[in-house]
Amino acid sequence: MMDIVANERHFTVDEIAADWNLSRDTIRRVFINEDGVLRLSRPGTRYKRAHMTLRIPESVKWKVHRRMSTKAA
């Protein structure tokens, strides 16, 4: 399974936010704890804030989309 996910296209938060017409913060909240999402982080220091970058595999994007769509129905 992980080999398949590793070879998929990975989307940025900005790309999904634009596709779904939602804010970047909303997309971050939706995907931050999803299995399969790649989280790249840099810890904060005294002078710089912590930073986390998310990369969302296509299969995870559509899994979340299906789940959110069925909740609304």
- Rounded radius of gyration (Å): 14 Å
Shape: globular
* H/E series: HEHHEEH
Label the structural class.
alpha+beta
Could you explain how this protein is built, in words?
- This protein is of the alpha+beta class.
- Helix content is 51%, strand content 19%.
- β2 and β3 form a beta hairpin.
- The protein has a domain of 49 residues.
- Strands 1-3-2 form a three-stranded antiparallel sheet.
- It starts with a helix and ends with a helix.
- α2 crosses α3.
- The mean pLDDT is 90.
Fold blueprint:
Layout: H1 2-7, E1 10-11, H2 13-20, H3 24-31, E2 38-42, E3 51-57, H4 58-72
Antiparallel strand pairs: 1-3, 2-3
Produce a short descriptive summary:
The chain is of the alpha+beta class and 73 residues long. The protein has four helices and three strands.
Keywords, please?
3 strands, single chain, three-stranded antiparallel sheet, globular, alpha+beta, 4 helices, 19% strand, 73 residues
